[in-house]
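Researcher: Here's a chain I'd like modeled. Treat it as a single chain, no partners, no ligands.
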Amino acid sequence: MSEIPTYPDEQTEYQRGFEAGRASRDAEAEKLRADLEKAQANYRFMVERAADQKLDGYRELGARLASSEQSRDELRAQLAEKDAQLDRILAALYAKGIVVSDNGGGTTVEFLSTPRGETDGQ
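Model: Modeled as a single isolated chain. Structure tokens:
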């Protein structure tokens, strides 16, 4: 039986090429992994920044709304106090025989012959 001759230089050359290809492939894979991690980090940063900006906008709107609601509530309280004052004034005038009414087209004043606080016997 004859042996198949081996050529050490060819096998060594083949192995060197194979290992060089593997090293090149591993380096390329590592570069792709690094690029992917960088892209993911940039994406996360952009998403977080956009979310923060949106939240900041909502916070600002919320603060403005709260301020507006507080002003509205203060104005409503002032209006209620003015209405109560007007009611007291109208009641006092009525007691003196003066009727003031607002019919939507203007205010009318009517003087009663006898003030409401007095009676005919007095």
